[in-house]
């Protein structure tokens, strides 16, 4: 029998306030800046290696390989194992409950 572990994550969604402050265009620019921060400069994609390396720089050094793979697979729409800019932006919108409510 598999053990189930409940993990509670304290999450604050800043996207709605960014949308109010900067508008849709400004929010998209900030998402693109975030993508560039995390991407592999040579491939132009967020890869396992780039996310692992940049997560340490962002103070998330305790992220395990499984967590990184899970993060990538959550947004990987074309199945190449990496995130392009469109996949990243779609994932960020999907993960923002506040933006979904803002759109309604």
UniProtKB/TrEMBL annotation:
Name the UniProt record assigns to this protein: Ca2+-dependent modulator of ICR1
Ranges where the EF-hand domain occurs: 43-94
Top-level taxon of origin: Eukaryota
Keyword vocabulary terms for this entry: Calcium
One Pfam entry name: EF-hand_8
Lineage summary: Eukaryota, Viridiplantae, Streptophyta, Embryophyta, Tracheophyta
MF annotations from Gene Ontology: calcium ion binding
